[in-house]
């Protein structure tokens, strides 16, 4: 893809000095000039990135699920998703991307322009500016998600919206966005909100938001992977949630509402059952004489948590029935 600064379609960049651009900025300009319409160019690059990153990041987890060697690190080792389950999930997620996300992506550019976000513009912000802004987006999203996710566990919102995401009590990478369209919209506001808010205080470039969404997709898919490896990020950064944290939420239908970090669940006490579970597993490990004995005890504890979780889920729905009767 190339561009010509004297091209009549190139009204976005009058007088641009091409020699001053980095490789990435050059490609960015070429993309916008090639489309000739910034709304479509922003929408298309967002949609393509989302599809490539979402399915591209999920494929390694599909391969991991197919290799028995990795079961030793599976958080719920007896719950391996079948190829049929994974295919059903792909179809559902793809359908939602095309029917719900694709049209809403087209609203992004006008909204970004409205709050003053730079989109097709070059040069890009410095790496240090992008880094602190992405850190802010992450912090904002994590807090927003904790609060919105708690609300999604109230009877009405759970039954009509969030229950779909809890279809898998043992999640897998592809299931990260397996959710009701309203949930995708509500939680998507957390991903988007930080960048919109920040625009009122400082200059924000779409490229920072773009990189943040890639980071967010990796975080969401990996936290649904169902695997906790010794080299997983949470073992290096203890405040990182990771799969070990979110897998419990799916198994127990409660606790661990945040996405990236553990601190809000700790501060607001929404991780008590999770810690009790970890303590039981730790005690079982200390007591067991062999690995097989420990695996059996761990499985029993997980089965109890899952059974309690199903009761919790039923209780939420029962509260709704009581209210409406
Ligand atoms: Zn939930
Ligand atoms: Zn989830």
Automatic annotation (TrEMBL):
The keyword Transmembrane helix applies. GO terms for molecular function: iron ion binding; oxidoreductase activity. Keywords: Membrane, Transmembrane, Transmembrane helix. InterPro entries: Fatty_acid_hydroxylase, Sterol_Desaturase_Related. It comes from the Eukaryota. The chain crosses the membrane at residues 29-49, 184-215. One of its GO terms (biological process) is lipid biosynthetic process. It is found in: Membrane. Its main location: membrane. Residues 135-270 form the Fatty acid hydroxylase domain. GO terms for cellular component: membrane. This is C-4 methyl sterol oxidase. The lineage of its organism: Eukaryota, Fungi, Dikarya, Basidiomycota, Agaricomycotina.
